[in-house]
Every structure is written in C-alpha cells, then in structure tokens.
Amino acid sequence: MTEAHLDPIPYLTDLLGPAHVLTGEDTRRHAHDWTGKYKGTPRALLRPADRDQLAAIVTYAARHRLPVVPVAGNTGLAGGAYCDGALMVSVERLNRIREINPRARSATVEAGVILSQLHDAAEAQDLVFPLSFGARGSAMIGGVLSTNAGGSNVVRYGSTRGLCLGLEAVLPDGRVMDVMSPLHKDNTGLDLKDLMIGAEGTLGIVTAAVLRLFPRPRAYATAMVAVSDLDAALDLLNRLQEATGGAVEAFEYMPDDYMRQLFRLRPEMRPPFDRAYPISIMVEIGATAPRDATPGPDGRLPVVQLLEDTLGEGFERGEVLDAVIAQNETQREEIWARREISAEICFSAAHVVDNDIALPLDRVGTFLERMTARLPQIDPAAESVTVGHLGDGNLHYTVWASSGSADLKETIREAVEDEVAALDGSFSAEHGIGLSKLSTMARRKNPVALDAMRRIKAALDPEGIMNPGKLVPPAD
Amino acid sequence: MTEAHLDPIPYLTDLLGPAHVLTGEDTRRHAHDWTGKYKGTPRALLRPADRDQLAAIVTYAARHRLPVVPVAGNTGLAGGAYCDGALMVSVERLNRIREINPRARSATVEAGVILSQLHDAAEAQDLVFPLSFGARGSAMIGGVLSTNAGGSNVVRYGSTRGLCLGLEAVLPDGRVMDVMSPLHKDNTGLDLKDLMIGAEGTLGIVTAAVLRLFPRPRAYATAMVAVSDLDAALDLLNRLQEATGGAVEAFEYMPDDYMRQLFRLRPEMRPPFDRAYPISIMVEIGATAPRDATPGPDGRLPVVQLLEDTLGEGFERGEVLDAVIAQNETQREEIWARREISAEICFSAAHVVDNDIALPLDRVGTFLERMTARLPQIDPAAESVTVGHLGDGNLHYTVWASSGSADLKETIREAVEDEVAALDGSFSAEHGIGLSKLSTMARRKNPVALDAMRRIKAALDPEGIMNPGKLVPPAD
Asked: Which residue among B231, B313, B336, B389 sits deepest, i.e. has the most Cβ atoms within 10 Å of its Cβ?
C-alpha cells in the first residue's frame, strides 16, 4: 500500500525547515521509550510548528499512504508511540497555553503543553488541573488525552475523559475536526471528543483541548497509614469520604512488597514508620471550603482534625495500626515522592510483566490472594511488586519474571488476565493498550465491541496510516 | 432498499406473541409524542420481553432492510422517537433492576426501567441516582442514555455520560455489544460506551447499563432567591460553591417571564414571594457529611446555616433582594414543583420554538439582552419564556411565535442560533437533536465532525435501518 519508493524528506524539509526533520540518532529521544521495551527507528521525526503544519504533514502522508506515528511526551508505558520506519510526528512545538479562564474554570491548551506547566499556570490563578502522576514533568497533554491517562486524583475528580470539555484533532486524511467546546453541557451529535480520548492516535492526532479546572484546595491533610488488611483500608476510605463529604483526593495502596523495593532501590528515601507493615495507604484530603482550612482556636486545621478523628476511630477498632500525618509541605512532598516514583521502581527489573488492571474495590484482596498462590506455580523465582490507586480499584501489579522468555511473560500475563476476568475486573485501567496489550485485547475484549472498533477505525482511517498496529488488534 | 413487499407481522407475532405486536390505534401512546409535534404511524409497535427477543427483531429487520425506531418512555422533546412506517421497538418490558450494589455504589438496570423507579430503589439503600427531571415518572433509562439527558443536578454530579459506567446494546445487525463494565477505570479501547450515549438509537438500541450511585444527602437546604441581576446570581453561585465545598445540587434560573406564565397556567401554585422579581433562582445544597446534617445547639442544621449566612451576605451587598428557605420537606417539594413543571408550561402554547441551548456562564445575560432586542424585529407578537439550569449555563429559551408558519419558526430558530454561536454557546444542551434540530446540525456543526459522524453511522449501520433520519443530517 505505502509508496516505499517515495522519498518524503525533501517535501517535509521544505514544509518544516531542516531543523525540524530529524533522522537517525537524532530521533532517539522520541523513538526509544523509557521502559526500554520499545526501540524503533522512524523514517523521520517531524516537529511541526503548529496545527496547520501538522495537518499538512498528515495530508501529505495520506496522499502517499505513508504511516504516521504521533508522539507527545513519550512517557507512555504500553508502546503506543513505538515507531519503526514510519513518519513520527511530535506535538512538542504545539506548546501554547492559549487561555486560562478563571471565571469559566477552564484551560485551553495545545497538545505539546507539559502537564506540570499546566499545573503551574492553573495554580497561578488559584485553580488546579487535578490530573497528576509521576511523569507530569515530561508528559504532554496530547499524550495524556490519547492515552486516557489516570493518576492519583481520579477518586475525587474523575478520569481524563471527564476533565476534557472539548478538543481539536487532525483526522487521518489531514482535515481538522474542531469540537473545542468550553461548555459543560454540549449535546450536539455523536461523542467524537470521547472517541478521540483513549484512541492512542489511531483515529487522528489531538492538537488542542479545553480542560476543566477546579478550585485549588486551601489546605491538605496528608498521611501515611498502616492498616490491618484491605477490608480495613476500604472501611477507612468510606469513613473518610463520609466525614469529609467526598473530599478524599488520593487513597494509594503501597503494600510491603512495594515499600521493600522502594527503600532498597532508593535508600535515600526515609521509611514512614519505624517498622514494616503489610499494607500502607497514602491518604490525602483536600479542603476547598474556608471553614475546613481556617485554623481553630487551638491552631489546628479542621481538615486535619477530621483526618485525625477518623484515624483515631480506626485505631480503636484495630483497623488502623499506625499513622503519620504531614505537618508541613515538605513532609507532604516526602509522602508523595514515595508514591510518584513507583513507575521507576516497578520497571527497574530485567524482565518486567506490568499489569495495569482494575477490580471492583471489594475484590482487590481476593485477586492478590489468588495471584500469590498462582504465580509461584508458573515461575517459582518470580517476584511481584504492587502499587495502586485503591480508591479506583486500580492496581499496578508488576511481576518481575525470572527470565525474559516471551512464553513465560505471556503465560504470566494470561494468568493475571484470568483472575482479573473471573473477578469482573478490567485488563487495562489507565496506561493504555498500545502494543503491550494488543494480544490481551484480542483475547479478552467483547468480540462485537472489537468488530465495532475495527469498523470505526476503517471508517475514519481507510488507508490505515494512523499509528498502525496499535490499540485495535487485527481481525484474524 | 427496504423490502416493502415483505409482511414482517407473521414472523414477529410468532416471535413475540400477538399481545406484543401492536398496530394502528394501539401504537398511539408510543407513536405520538406529548409535545404534539411528532405523530406517526408505525408499521408495528413491538414489545420484546428481553434482550434476546429484541436482538432477534433487529436481526430480522437487518436481514430484510426494514427500518427500526427504538422507543423508551417517549418523553423526548426533539422527535427522536418519531416513527412512521417503520418497526417501532419499545424497551418497556426490559424493566428489571438487576442489581443495586451499595458497596460498589452502582446499579445495573435494563433500558425499560423508569427513572423514578431507579430513584426509589437507590434511596432504599440510602443512595441516590442523581439524574432527575420533570418527566422522571415516565422517562426510561434507555431513553435517558440515548438522549444523553441532563437535568437539574448536573452542576454537582455531572451529565448522564459521567453517570454511566458501562452498557449493553444491540447493534444494527442484531449482535449484542457488551461493554457492561462496573469499573470507574476501564480503558480498553475506543470509547464505545460514550458513542452509544447520545446517539439517539441511530447506532443501535441500548438494552442495559451500569450506573453510578452516590451517598444520599443527609439533609438539604432549599430556597427560592430573588436576585438583582444575572451577575449577582453567578456571584451567589460561586460563593455557595466555595462555602459548601461544591455541594450545590441545583441552581435553577426562573425569571419573571416564566413565573408569570407558571402562575397564569397553574393558579393553584403559590408564588414564592409577595411580589414579582425580574430574576428568581431555585437553589439547593445537599449535605452528605454528618457534621453538616447534625442540628446544632440551637436546633439548626449547619447546611441551612451556611445557606442563610451566604444569602445574608448577599442581602448586605444588595445582590440578594428576597429569599424563602424551605422549612420542611413539603415546602421543599413545593419549590421543586414550580421548576419541574417547566416543560408543560413552555410547550403549552400553539406555536412553540423551543431552544435548548448552553452558553458560557458569564454570557447568559448578554444572550438574553440580544434576543430581547432581536425577537420583536422578527415577530412583534412573539413571547419568550425562559427557564434553565444556570449552574450549567443551560437555558431553555422558548419562543411562543405568533403563527405556526414554518418559515417564521425557522427564522426565529436561526436568530437564536446566530446569537448562541456568536457567544461560543451550543445549540443543543440536553434535549438532543432528533428531528427538531436536524437542520441546525447541518448548519452549525463543524463539517469535518459531521462527516466523521456520517462515516461512523455508515460503518455501524451500513443499511441505514436504525432510527433513520435522526441526529445525523444527510450529506447534501
């Protein structure tokens, strides 16, 4: 199909300028992902200056049936930006924050804006964009949206999908689809915005979006809490949600297998407790109302008091075993740092099988028990490292296999999938499908839904040039 | 295309039983909408007992290229269920609440469940399904989802889209697509759930869904408030959101033009104030935390105190002119009744041009000023009746035209669209497109987005049998 004989470089160099058409080693930063699993050689790395240049690239690629792979911050964990022999299109120069609108509580940003830059711009207006995760310093909005990335604050603010009001995308034929609505209610036909979110660039390239902002909490209550078991953890979550009226911003699961590897690999990090506990939870409450953030006569913050009282009740019930509440921003950052480094910890081994899964909250414990029994039967020398967003039932259950055997890894992956499926869970929660879960999609997704995806892909990308081979497994 | 010669009745009667294949006058309740604008004669009204019977109907219809029009509660306002000569498929017998799961805070319901029945089932577990509107006593979940209906509580809980975790649908070829995920994070491919929501049955028939439930507020503070102008109203909204930490459940705009017609047409309803004010707002705060719902030493509820204090500050600034706070559930219901009857009021005239629009919050006033100047130039004898969900910028700006002339109505509709577009608003917020806004869609929707919709429709419904002629205007 593709015109292999055609040399696109002259046209593209003429279009973008030589400084923005990179080849060979110059493409490395974009073409090698940081997990080290996906290393390709793009035919060229293209850095358009704006949406129109990007659209011109795609129009040209469509005319000549050249495959295109979009890339943003290249922080993905599923190989969604793997590119070998295709034109790699980076949105990094589409990096303008077009508007922060405090009254409408919205931000209009381009796809190359780095997540942490948006955080800073919102906070300057006393607002927050609540989506955050460890890679926020390099992840870009275009990738965040295309991955439908999650993070630690979904429990309070919802997922990326719910945080995006509208967007603009270049479709596989090079046309610009503008559904940049700033409105909270806009019901004008099929939901193309959500179709692009999570499509991993297979239906086009997101170039800009309108995102929701929220009032910046006036104060936080942040703690590390050791609990007796997972039921105690869920009980604590529900009591905190009730006491605060749903102000739990994060409820992160950090069991002993994670903490052990964390302090082994990052000895400079201080353990939260003077002993190890089977289950630690990172809790954060955000106080947006003045009455919760105004110190009382004793100088204490009501939001901290609420947390202390709820933890105190847990102690009395024997569900809470230990707890450390951050007394200042430095201590708060120390608590967050232990959690936000998790991807580096989990991917630090030689033979990683990462499982980004979701389970009904009350079945997380059952899943872990079953895997603890099953994994040694498959790979006696394997280790597991678990960390997750317990408030969403989202676990990152990472297995360090004893060898790099593809068969072994696939056997482990299938075993995890089996247990997840048996408990009505999901094989993908927030990292996306990319290449790493393509076989899982083919095995596990409802076949009628798979066929519908293939039809939609063919309808919007008949030549199959947009991020080919990702997300949607081919029909066999 | 369709096999007009074929008589489907014998097969369908054999499939469903004679009691569930209705024709002629027996189809009236489903085939005539209550606005009186859309009256058709279905070839037959079919009432399948379950999903499999429904799928068999669609499979048969697809094989013989017979058009199918789904219908649920038939409370739509846009003609989305208009059916003339097609097979009308009612989901009314798919009416089981399969599960209310208090721990997961979810409900699994079939498409024929009536909204108020779900409300009751949730409240029995001390939970709420927060989507509500005047027609809740007859609207069914299948229609609610297919319309992406809104309502009065979106300001706190989000729209239908955000309240639905997963669903099951019969596609236009009769296959069942099961994406019934109960999870809050489930990122497994293209977002087919949201593609079906708001598709108005053009891509298939929703047969069941998993919906989110929320803790039932322990107490409400509900009031009618007269304000000096729209800026004062928005200021009040922001102050209430801040004071309560975002617990505003409803913030409804009820100006004098609406109140006047309300009390003219419903003289039994008691005016909230002893005089008329230009702008009245219905506000409700929901208290989910015990500390907000536990009476203080003086017997007052903290949540009511918060509302009184905030209104008091408004009085001092001259922004709040008058206010009545419900002292009991009866008074609360009386306040809600004035709002929930709005559709009946607005559609009570002979020549109605209803405009379900959304605007950026800070431009609502400008829109109304412009229409007040423009409408008399088009139709000097026209009256306007406005009511809306101000917290979402969603206005129901209804024009009572002086005649039923189609040209006049279209001129009025276009004038409204012009002003909405000039203010970055949306021509459709929560009632859907159906037939009533098909011309608007063709005129106003981004053409690339329109083309994408047509491609998706053709990909999933190549024969064009599912609710033909609705939502997606034909390419000209």
From this structure: B389
